[in-house]
């Protein structure tokens, strides 16, 4: 459990639900322009900044520099950290003095390699990468008559968890489909995380059914804040994202919901709430691991 002072400091979190087109340069430029606007309106020099705020963390969507589709990943893939997108993000966060969870981009393992990943990078205000996460559970589904998508046709799965510390927040990272696997969230919780972040691009079949439900489930399972950041919905695109970037609190309540259009939402998070919820309903201490590990189910 993280320690907390008697005077709480809030982490201000901004979710950027962005339009994504077919020009990588325009997508990256659009993201950075939106970041500048958020810093101007909600950053440390804005009228809304208070003495309780400590840092600003901005979060971008999954595949924010590329259309989301297996036929695009190889074309748009870059090496990290020396590709175009990373170079531009490094300059931007240093200029703006913010933390940034940069959604995800198609990553090429090394120059000339055919091995690709769906990768999230995390940036500190000095322009350096402080974390990198490769999507662990690939989005392979086939719902007849509605949607078929097979990330594994072009992407490889990551094999490592990533957690980073920003002030009182210990943040565990996942990407989109990872949110369906509560084991990943529980490992992060056991490691002390109190904030789970999933850049994601659910579609119009699974989004209305499961997007909010899964976020509330992971928040309730771990008694943590959960944030998801989607691309904006574009009905003309080949893959139509659901939108509805959200923050769920440790009680499982919806704090913000961005609807579907291009927009952003900003919220101040108090991580003392996680400590209170975990003390009042101490499920992490009540788990019967002695039974779970030895129980043999018979039918």
Account of the protein in words:
- By secondary structure, this protein is α/β, with parallel strands linked by helices.
- It has helices spanning 24-42, 70-76, 84-96, 182-190, 207-222, 272-280, 283-286, 289-292; strands at residues 10-17, 53-59, 99-101, 105-108, 116-123, 129-134, 140-143, 147-150, 163-166, 169-173, 195-199, 225-229, 246-248, 254-257, 263-269.
Features:
15 strands; about 300 residues; alpha/beta; seven-stranded mixed sheet; six-stranded mixed sheet
Provide a short characterization of the protein structure.
The chain has 299 residues and is an alpha/beta fold.
Task: Describe how the helices and strands are arranged.
Blueprint: E1 10-17, H1 24-42, E2 53-59, H2 70-76, H3 84-96, E3 99-101, E4 105-108, E5 116-123, E6 129-134, E7 140-143, E8 147-150, E9 163-166, E10 169-173, H4 182-190, E11 195-199, H5 207-222, E12 225-229, E13 246-248, E14 254-257, E15 263-269, H6 272-280, H7 283-286, H8 289-292
Parallel strand pairs: 1-2, 2-3, 10-11, 11-12
Antiparallel strand pairs: 1-15, 3-5, 4-5, 5-6, 7-8, 9-10, 12-13, 13-14
Cα-based radius of gyration, to the nearest Å: 19 Å
Q: Into which percentage range does the β-strand content fall?
A: 25-35%
Task: Give the SSE order as H and E letters.
Answer: EHEHHEEEEEEEEHEHEEEEHHH
Largest sheet: 7 strands, mixed
Distance between the termini: 39 Å
Strand tally is 15
Q: Segments where pLDDT lies below 50 for 5+ residues?
A: 1-7
Class per helix and strand makeup: alpha/beta
Number of helices: 8
Residues in helix, % = 25-40%
Mean pLDDT: 94
**Shape, please?**
globular
